[in-house]
Amino acid sequence: MNKIISKKVLSKSVTEMKIYAPQILKHAQAGQFVMLRINEKSERIPLTISDMDHENGLLTIIFQVIGSTTYELNELNVGDDILDLVGPLGKPTHIEGFKKVCVIGGGVGCAIAYPVAKALSLKNVEVDVIIGFKSKNDMILHQKFEKIANHVFVSTDDGSYQTKGFVTDILSDLLKNGQTYDHVFAIGPIIMMKMVSQLTAKYNIGTTVSLNPIMVDGTGMCGGCRVKVGKDIKFACVDGPDFDGHLVDFDLLQSRNNMYKETETKNYKCLAEKGGHS
Ligand SMILES: Cc1cc2nc3c(=O)[nH]c(=O)nc-3n(C[C@H](O)[C@H](O)[C@H](O)COP(=O)(O)OP(=O)(O)OC[C@H]3O[C@@H](n4cnc5c(N)ncnc54)[C@H](O)[C@@H]3O)c2cc1C
Ligand code: FES
């Protein structure tokens, strides 16, 4: 069993948990994820390994309460066990050969961007970070990014903290003012990754995005997570989740993720109204 060792509220809808899982940590690298199942009745969901404490065998997950499974996960407390935790899954993020990069995180995507920024910084790569949120109250991981990055820029949609606007406004200003990067990593809402990729294409800067299609088994068997990258069909769970942002069909990804929205929203509302007891 995988015991929850700590639980911390990072914002209104985002929680951090540290879980005792030394076996998974042995092989885990930045960019990889776990599939977890809370109990026999729950669905399996993918969550990124957001940080690793090898000394104590603890892996960190940071999740947004968005539907029924993340709601149930958030009901667990320190000392509770998670039934299944499988990983590390997916390919590690490619971080070799760069001198100066920009890592961009949007909303809960910052939980996925953080381990990438940290791994790059540990390799002495110069890392600029741009993180964006709806509002100051939604901001997460700002201080953790400050510790590892050369510069951290923050945008908020409503202007309640630092730059008013989107992460792309900050990136666009930096690039217009002559800033150069070997590579950009962008992780967040699909529309954000699409807009960043369109911008970096103009400047011919290679761009990695981390895709979040609906996953079922996480083993490449069910086809649930298929995405179109250039002319190829890929499975995000085994071929990704990282792909070349200049080749990804973001519109198809968005429409596939929207397919289950109505049913999932209905299930979540039902669960929340019952106070978590289904
Ligand atoms: C490789 C990978 C890593 C991920 N890492 C993280 C992470 O570190 N932290 C985190 O908070 N989330 C992460 N996610 C997304 C997370 O898996 C989903 O939010 C979760 O499965 C939702 O489950 P649920 O039952 O609570 O919600 P559901 O009831 O399944 O969904 C609720 C709502 O969220 C939307 N939704 C569900 N899954 C996704 C998705 N994958 N992308 C976009 N919208 C979705 C649905 O359309 C629906 O409207 C990751 C996804 C992938 C594929
Ligand atoms: S989740 Fe089933 S193939 Fe990727």
From TrEMBL:
The keyword Flavoprotein applies. Binds 1 [2Fe-2S] cluster per subunit. Its cofactor is [2Fe-2S] cluster; FAD. One of its GO terms (molecular function) is oxidoreductase activity. [2Fe-2S] cluster binds at C222, C225, C237. The keyword Ligase does not apply. GO terms for biological process: pyrimidine nucleotide biosynthetic process. Keywords: 2Fe-2S, FAD, Flavoprotein, Iron, Iron-sulfur, Metal-binding. FAD binds at I62, F63, Q64. NCBIfam families: PRK06222.1. This is Ferredoxin-NADP+ reductase subunit alpha. It comes from Mariniplasma anaerobium.
